[in-house]
Hints:
CATH class of the largest domain in chain A: Alpha Beta
Oligomer: heterodimer
Low-confidence stretches of chain B: none
CATH superfamily of the largest domain in chain A: P-loop containing nucleotide triphosphate hydrolases
CATH architecture of the largest domain in chain A: 3-Layer(aba) Sandwich
Radius of gyration of chain B: 24 Å
Helix content of chain B: over 70%
Number of helices of chain B: 14
Distance between the termini of chain A: 46 Å
Number of domains of chain B: 2
Shape of chain A: globular
CATH architecture of the largest domain in chain B: Orthogonal Bundle
Radius of gyration of chain A: 20 Å
Order of helices and strands of chain B: HHHHHHHHHHHHHH
Number of strands of chain A: 13
Distance between the termini of chain B: 5 Å
CATH superfamily of the largest domain in chain B: MetI-like
Structural class of chain B: mainly alpha
CATH topology of the largest domain in chain A: Rossmann fold
Mean pLDDT of chain A: 88
Bound molecules: adenosine-5'-triphosphate, magnesium ion
Order of helices and strands of chain A: EEEHEEEHEHHHHEHEHEEHHHEE
Number of domains of chain A: 2
Amino acid sequence: MTVLSISNLNVVFSTEDGPLHALKDVSFDVPANRIVGIVGESGCGKSTLINAILGLLADNGHIDGGAIRFEGDTDLTTLGPDAMRDLRGPRIATVFQDPMGALNPVLSVGAQMVNIQYRSGRSKAEKRARAVEMLEQVRIPDAAAAIKRYPHEFSGGMKQRIAIAMALMMEPALLIADEPTTALDATLEVATIEMLKDLQQKIGCSILFISHHLGVIAELCDDVVVMYAGEVVERGTTRAIFNDPRHPYTARLLECDPARQTERTRNLPTIPGEIPDLRARPPGCIFANRCHRREDVCARPPPDIQIGGGHAARCHLADMPEMEVAP
Amino acid sequence: MLAYFVKRLGLAVIIVSVAMLMLFCMIYAIPGDPAAVALGPRATDAMREALRIKMGLDQPIWVQFWNFFTGAWTGDLGREVLSDRPVLGVVLEQLPFTLALIAGGIIWSVALGIPLGCFAAIRRGSLADRIVGILSVAVIAVPSFVIAIYALLIFAVQLRWLPAIGAGEPGDLGDQLFHLILPSLAVGLGWVGYIARMVRASMLEVLEASHIRTARAFGLPDRQITYRYALTIAVLPTVTLLGVGIGQMLSSAVFAEIVFARPGVGKLVYDAILTRNFPLVTGTVLVTTVLFVMLNLVADLIVGALDPRVRSSF
Lengths: 327, 314
Ligand SMILES: Nc1ncnc2c1ncn2[C@@H]1O[C@H](COP(=O)(O)OP(=O)(O)OP(=O)(O)O)[C@@H](O)[C@H]1O
Ligand SMILES: [Mg+2]
């Protein structure tokens, strides 16, 4: 069963300098009970993708074709705002990038956790008890007292765990986590990842996990989606992506020693050149201008070449694995 | 919280003391002999000398200041020249009228300004937003005494909906409130503009915050997000602004009390200046300074009550 199936999704932002194609022909699946990682440089459209799924695109953005199927055949792109709101929370829960600002500063943690259960039909006391229970699960000390406190009274790591507790309290089918660990230090990051994995198994949901951090992706995820400039350039199982990358961009990302990636590398390895202007996408391969394997054929749009086992790469040369080039 | 309160109270005492010193210097610098001014041209030298001694004007300046300073802190603001009644009593008698006027002005400005600003922020860029924007600037730009005069002409003289002058029958609360409507609107209308603009700006900022995105991502109803999650934060700068703006409201109150012939501290100080009743002028200014400092403190305490971050930094 697939929980989420995105096909040929396009998102366009209207800007003063014309339309900006933030997502182009994005397709991938999130199967039930699996953790899918999305990796890509800053600005490649990870947050835009999440916002499109949640129906929370900025006012100047809109979905320009494609489908987002959730739990079978509901196409989220065709749902109205009320139907979308009914899904947000109970079915699709989200943990955002910024643990410092993700909680409301003037409401107590307990009030916020009670408020988001407004559709549960539980009594106020039951909602509170549920909030305390979830805080205990993410190992917030003295949870019964903690719900009376305000976000600024917690450390960054604790706030992020509270955010995770809020999301998992909904027992969603899909948990979206937008770089939930980026702001945390390395030890906290490992602890948070392990906790997330535990809770995911307990609840039995799927996770769409976004990160800059290849080490975390390798550790946590079953499948990986590699994004570049608003396109999915490669997707497959974590093993396939890390052991047999077919897109030159993926290959360059992994080129740095994976062992080093498990340390505190916050940013992806730098590749010479820049992401093309998304307002004037090149007609051919989006990565061609930075690619070390560029050929004449790359001036034409590359197909999604299927390598097998769900592994696919948007590259003319995906069938021809890279030779070791002597420096 | 208590430590903060004590600290703020200490600061308030210093502010009031400095205000006393400045006021004393100002009075001292006014040319002419206060005793002569008080007694008028037909008084004899002996009468003037007697009054000078009674007012303590024969003492060295620092003794005069010390007497003034300790007197003021113990509530002795001297006696007013004409009726020889204690100044503090006269001012406190008028104070409730002015307080009611300012409270009315705040209620008008908050009751109109916050919903307008909030509405404009939610409908950002719409025609309604632009109209609110233009009206805000207009009411800020027009001086409050002009608003007072026009309000009087339109609603009291032309339409006769509301009473034109006075503060209403003493003891009849309904009548007093009825008399308060127009003058307090004149005091508060300019603030409607300030508050609407302020709330709109901070509301737009808060709505962009990531915790609002979290609230949306959990599917909370829009109303709850707007009022419970965003507006409670967006009004905080407005409360602080109002605390500071009390001073300006006091000066609008002076005009409103004159135009509407209402009793009050503004009217009192105006009459006192006209009759050169200097002890009364000094006393009124001091009492309003204390009032200003206290209301400022109240505004800070309200912010503390609304914002747990401020509360725990106390
Ligand atoms: N509201 C908007 N209007 C115009 N352009 C936008 C808007 N939101 C995002 N973009 C553009 O879309 C592209 C993708 O942005 P997005 O925020 O999704 O990237 P990201 O992968 O989440 O980056 P990061 O890792 O820094 O969070 C960027 O080029 C960005 O400038
Ligand atoms: Mg992002």
